[in-house]
Amino acid sequence: MQKELIRQSKFLSLVLRHNPSAAGITLDDSGWVEVDVLVKAVQRTHRNFTRERLIEIVETNDKKRFSFSGDGTRIRAAQGHSIGVNLELAPVTPPERLYHGTTERFLPSIREQGLIRMKRDHVHLSPDEKTAHQVGMRHGRPVILVVRALDMNAAGHAFYLSDNGVWLTESVPVQFIQFPEPATPPAG
Questions:
Q1: pLDDT digits (tens, 9 = 90+) for 77-132
Q2: How much is the mean pLDDT over the chain?
Q3: Which residues on neighbouring strands pair with residue 126, listed in sequence order?
Q4: What order do you get walking across the sheet with 142-147 strand by strand?
Q5: Terminus-to-terminus CA distance in the chain, angstroms?
Q6: With left for phi above 0 and alpha for psi between -120 and 50, is residue 112 left, alpha or beta?
Q7: CATH topology (fold) of 2-77
Q8: At 178, phi and psi to the nearest 5?
Q9: Which residue has the higher pLDDT, 173 or 4?
Q10: 20 three-class SS
Q11: Residue-level pLDDT at 21
């Protein structure tokens, strides 16, 4: 049962964030799709998928990846899209510092280019080091970068806060990133 729930959740992420045609649906410009349309489409590949299962996935997803509309008739991914959607988020003043979890192998590129959105609509930043550490662990040995978000915002860079608490921005220039000190080899 749990494995099926995970498979269905991953499929929803694929469909609502990256490839709606995988389920034969179309998202509107803001990433929304009617719940009934989504449930019927997902049932083509996951026969036991129901509206109740969808609600369970939304409510139990630890990263709160999905959001229902206020009236509960539509659903979308909260953030993380690699397809063009307008989440209709208003710019928000960020806290002084935000965090980005990555791995050591990406540091040379980040030191050169800053944080860029790659294939996604935005760079994702975490409100705390713990969350950034968890993100970085997905790709190897984690490294936490500190982003001077308030200074960056004062310099004209917009920040947005997604429904699930992830901070979003177009890019983070190198001058606003505090890199960890390099590890010092033991004296020998």
A1: 988 888 888 888 999 999 999 999 999 999 999 999 999 988 888 999 999 999 99
A2: 91
A3: 99
A4: 98-103, 142-147, 177-178
A5: 54
A6: alpha
A7: Arc Repressor Mutant, subunit A (1.10.10)
A8: -100, 115
A9: 173
A10: helix
A11: 95
**Between the CA of residue 110 and those of 61, 101, 147, what are the distances in Å?**
30, 12, 12
The DSSP-derived string for 115-177 is EE-TTSSSEEEBSSHHHHHHHHHTTSSEEEEEE-HHHHHHTT---EE-TTS-EEESEE-GGGE
Paired tokens of 1 = 């049962």
- What b-and-e string marks burial along 64-78, b requiring 16 or more CB atoms within 10 Å of the CB? bbbbbeeeeebbbbb
**Are the C-beta atoms of 64 and 80 separated by less than 8 Å?**
no
Please answer whether residues 32 and 81 qualify as being in contact, where contact means their C-beta atoms are separated by less than 8 angstroms. no
Which sequence spans correspond to the domains of the chain?
2-77, 98-178
Query: Looking at domain 98-178, does it have CATH number 3.30.160.20?
Result: no
Q: Which two tokens stand for residue 88?
A: 């209709």
Q: Sheet harboring 74-77: ordered strands across?
A: 33-34, 74-77, 66-68
The amino acid sitting at 10 is K
pLDDT at residue 167, as a whole number = 96
